[in-house]
Design goal:
The chain has helices at residues 25-36, 69-86, 99-109, 121-124, 133-147, 162-165, 211-224, 239-249, 266-275, 295-303, 313-320, 334-343, 360-372, and strands spanning 9-19, 39-47, 57-64, 90-93, 112-117, 154-157, 172-174, 189-190, 198-204, 229-235, 255-260, 278-281, 307-310, 325-328, 347-348. It is of the alpha/beta class. Helix 11 (313-320) links the parallel strand 13 and strand 14.
Length: 374
């Protein structure tokens, strides 16, 4: 028997530029809460159209259509209005942008405030080459002011390294971006007889994520293995960089783009991972990236797709448990091709990944925290 809607505890999960069907806010936090049948669930986030429904959730758009600077300002007012409509007992802020309004209204609406720290936003400013020193300084001030508000009851940290980078964010629970689904069991396999390959780069497409190195690596590979393809699927937040990617892709007819200035459907990315022979993660070894665990690592392992990742001890150690991927220097041209050919002589997935790569391995602790706050 379902719990009466009036007796359910109202929760609001709030993002600004992340989509309503965000892989973390909705697929992980939201669906885990929905399965308990204890909560009246509300979610605010980016939407391509005015009305968007998610089963078991009331949806409120933060931004409709393409995101602009003024729409992001307007999203603050939408958030304020949504808070007054929902009057949650628990508010989960998935962005620093809403923390000031949340802190101001908390005494009047009497909710518990959780900050889901998805990024180290201050460090991430160094990843955006389009910011002038003035813009970077201003953004830094806004982030610091927002994240230092009073009244935050609990923190979820999306990366283990955030406990060292942001030690002031306590009490906390580490909730990594593990795969929200089931492991696709895969027997040990090898590609030693294959003559062409399907490579994939997906997710957020930025210079720091090494996309150009990935393209140059593929260009070298396609000379040796003609008929191979590279799919680039994802969200390009920097307009000028999108033009660069499009220009580079035109030079090789075997590079196929499906990119957008707005986030693409996560289901599409997962579908592409299952089709690929290799997921490419050519991240640059920068302070803002090197200690994190990319979502694509968990997703690729769960879906049985081997990974080629930039040289990084943490990532390579994680992959080596299952022989599910290998480190490679994407910028080294001919050496990278030689490394790739050596990798092809190995068997992949000699051990099937276990439950530690799944969101469900963290779900119980997450729900316990939520339950303790009401």
């Amino acid at each position: 028997m379902g719990q009466n809607q009036a007796s359910k505890i109202p929760i609001l999960i709030a993002s600004s530029i992340k989509p309503l069907k965000d892989t973390r806010a909705w697929e992980k936090l939201g669906i885990s809460l929905r399965e308990t049948n204890r909560y009246d669930l509300n979610i605010i986030g980016f939407s391509k159209k005015k009305q968007e429904n998610l089963e078991g959730f009331k949806c409120f758009p933060s931004i409709i259509g393409k995101s602009t600077k003024w729409k992001r300002v307007l999203s603050q007012l939408r958030f304020l209005k949504t808070l007054l409509i929902v009057r949650p007992k628990i508010l989960v802020c998935c962005t620093y942008e809403y923390l000031i309004i949340a802190s101001v209204l908390k005494p009047f609406l009497s909710f518990k405030l959780i900050y889901d720290v998805q990024e180290n936003y201050l460090v991430n400013l160094d990843l955006n080459p389009s910011l002038s020193p003035f813009q970077k300084s201003r953004a830094s001030q806004i982030i610091r002011k927002s994240e230092s508000v009073t009244g935050i009851d609990f923190y979820f940290l999306a990366e283990e390294c955030y406990t060292l980078e942001m030690p002031e964010k306590k009490p906390n629970l580490i909730l990594e971006n593990k795969f929200a689904g089931k492991i696709r069991l895969k027997t040990a396999s090898d590609y030693s007889q294959k003559k062409d390959f399907r490579f994939l780069i997906s997710g957020t497409i930025t210079p720091a994520f090494g996309i150009l190195d990935g393209i140059h690596f593929f260009n070298s590979i396609s000379e040796k293995y003609p008929g191979s393809t590279l799919r680039i699927v994802g969200h390009v937040p920097l307009k000028n960089f999108q033009k660069t990617i499009e220009s580079e892709a035109k030079k090789n007819p075997f590079i196929r783009l499906q990119i957008d200035s707005n986030p693409v459907e996560h289901a599409l990315i997962l579908e592409e991972i299952t089709k690929a022979d290799f997921t490419l993660l050519p991240y640059q070894n920068l302070p803002a990236i090197k200690d994190k665990m990319p979502t694509k690592l968990f997703e690729s392992l769960a879906l049985g797709t081997p990974v080629l990742v930039s040289k990084n001890e943490k990532w390579e150690s994680f992959l080596s448990q299952y022989q599910a991927g290998f480190g490679i220097d994407f910028s080294s041209g001919e050496d990278a091709v030689l490394t790739f050919e050596q990798i092809l002589q190995k068997q992949f997935f000699i051990k099937s990944p276990d439950q530690e790569i799944l969101w469900s391995s963290q779900e119980k602790e997450f729900l316990q925290v939520i339950s303790s706050l009401h």
